[in-house]
Amino acid sequence: LSRSGGVWVDAFQRSREDPDIFAVGDCAHKQDFFTRKANHAMIASQAAAEGRIAGMNLYGLRQLRYNAGSVSVYASEIDGLAFGVAGLTQHQAEQEGFPILVGEARLPDHHPASMPNTTEIYCRIIFAADSLQILGGQILGGATTGELVNTIGLAIQMHASAPDLASMQFGSQPRLTPSLHPLVAATGDALRRHYEPLHPCITGAPHA
Ligand SMILES: Cc1cc2nc3c(=O)[nH]c(=O)nc-3n(C[C@H](O)[C@H](O)[C@H](O)COP(=O)(O)OP(=O)(O)OC[C@H]3O[C@@H](n4cnc5c(N)ncnc54)[C@H](O)[C@@H]3O)c2cc1C
Q1: FRET pair for 136, CA 20 to 30 Å: which of 9, 73, 121, 126?
Q2: Closest atom of ligand 1 relative to the 43 alpha carbon
Q3: Which residue numbers delimit the Pyridine nucleotide-disulphide oxidoreductase dimerisation domain (predicted)?
Q4: What's the chain's Rg over C-alpha atoms?
């Protein structure tokens, strides 16, 4: 067992003691996607992902089907307010010593905002300041929160960068989505903060 109490497994979910024995889910040790430190993501979605990886590698290793680490995607809802997180929060990223770039956006989840049942979405995305790779994101909002953090989780797993997200192609429908995807809006804000000091004329900011 690892210090955190899980069965030590390799990237294919094989136990280190005996490669013919696989471990997945709450009983398996997990490593953080970014830091490789122990990660205590005891959630069904993580267990199921590990189960799929184990299943794909049971009868021979498939090089591309391995566990790259726990991204940690969570969402919940209290009294109509949904909140979700994927990857590192701003606080965690700073604690780990990553120089970071943050982008934020607030926008209605339908367009125009006068549509019935419209809820405001708040989206915050954290990037590594040097590589512009996504480190994490947080959402506050309504019914779309769960799938938005799932999209952030996928972007993290795919090592997406701010330019990747800024050029993301998305669908838009007045009753189902905002007119601008919240990840694109928050990434645009991050890129503005990144480039504004370098090229003030691009963003229209006043010259210092
Ligand atoms: C209250 C609560 C709410 C949760 N909400 C969420 C949520 O919203 N989203 C989410 O993703 N996760 C949630 N989780 C976590 C999620 O339930 C677990 O992460 C997930 O069930 C882990 O799956 P598992 O297969 O590893 O273990 P388990 O689901 O615990 O399955 C282990 C199985 O092994 C059996 N077993 C144990 N010992 C033996 C034995 N000696 N011999 C044979 N069988 C044995 C058990 O009876 C059990 O059926 C929640 C957990 C709790 C407790």
Answers
A1: 9
A2: 19
A3: 82-179
A4: 19
